[in-house]
Amino acid sequence: MTSEKKPMQTKNKVLIAAITVLILAGAAVGIYFGVRKDDHTNNNLGQGSNNSTSGGTPTNSGGLPTPTDVPALNGTMINGTLFPYYHLTGDAPPPVGVAGTVYTNCRDNNTFSISFDDGPSQWTPELLDFLDKENIKVTFFVNGDNDGCIYEPKIQETLKRAYKSGHQIASHTWSHPMLTTLTADAIALQMTRVEDALRDILGVVPRYMRPPFGDGTFGNKNANDLKVQNTLKSLGYVITTWNIATKDADIDDNLPSHKLSDAALLAVEQKEVTMEVDHDGPGSPHMVLMHDTYMRTVRLLAPWVVDYAKKLNNGGYKLVPVATCLGDDDPRNWYKHIGPPAATTPTTCTK
């Protein structure tokens, strides 16, 4: 019986081998035509271009889909550099803010601009965390050498973060002097030193500035005020002050007579804001001044101001940077110059 089964086993083995060959051949044919079909489809996607987005799928020169994890530019290319955060098209409109003019408040009703002077400081990164969370853009009026040197690596890092987050960067002079006490040349030097630093660090030169203490803006017939305003006009600066000063720099300065608890300090600062808002009436515009050089401003006052402003007029206010509240909606008009930053920058300030 064993000799009778051997021919059958041989036949079975041959049959199995033949079937296996057919299966493999069929698979090969299927794969070939499948590849050809895919090639045809991809060539249609890339038809007319070696880098097409026809059909909604980007393709490279080989007609294959481009990796979808390539990040889009977070900003707009201007003068060979990335202007961050804002996606802009077309040409910038003519600027609205007029050089040499002093603006003390926003232009339109239901606008509320928040600004911070004298920084960046060690507290500014914490403030930026809060503003990111609230998705609010503000104006930073920065000094060159006041609370700290603008070239210090940590301050440069903070300044870059604020700029890349879409906040307006404006000038507050180099060393925070009373401008009316300076010659026209000295005023110009205060401004151009900040320009040089911001051009090096960020690649931009501001159009907007705020004089320290508002000095030089209290009248247009005073000779010293005219000197300040005319000098700033010759440099192309829009001059801005405020209509609400929170007094944080006046009463949180560590003088013994100003030592207040957190609650007492915040109550005084809140009154400065609410008194002006109540006086001006519903919907009136406001330009609020604070200082990011004070811990309690960053941790107590700024969050309160944002929450208060959001609730004004049943939530009808827009919280915007200073330039925007004056009509310069296009952030390209916040600056006189936009270009690439310097490859290397100093790390200290020199007198």
Task: Tell me briefly what this model is.
The chain is of the alpha/beta class and 351 residues long. It has helices at 2-45, 124-134, 153-164, 184-201, 223-234, 248-251, 262-280, 295-311, 322-325; strands spanning 75-78, 81-84, 102-103, 111-117, 139-142, 168-171, 204-206, 208-209, 238-240, 244-245, 286-291, 318-320, 335-338. Helix content is 40%, strand content 14%.
Plain-language structure description:
40% of the residues lie in helices and 14% in strands. It starts with a helix and ends in a 13-residue tail after the last strand. The chain has nine helices and 13 strands. Helix 2 runs parallel beside helix 8, helix 4 packs parallel to helix 5 and helix 7 runs parallel beside helix 8. The strands form four sheets. Strands 4, 5, 6, 10, 11 and 12 form a six-stranded parallel sheet that branches. The radius of gyration is 32 Å and the shape is globular.
Secondary structure topology:
Elements: H1 2-45, E1 75-78, E2 81-84, E3 102-103, E4 111-117, H2 124-134, E5 139-142, H3 153-164, E6 168-171, H4 184-201, E7 204-206, E8 208-209, H5 223-234, E9 238-240, E10 244-245, H6 248-251, H7 262-280, E11 286-291, H8 295-311, E12 318-320, H9 322-325, E13 335-338
Parallel strand pairs: 3-9, 4-5, 4-11, 4-12, 5-6, 8-9, 10-11
Antiparallel strand pairs: 1-2, 7-13
Helix pairs in contact: 2-8, 4-5, 7-8
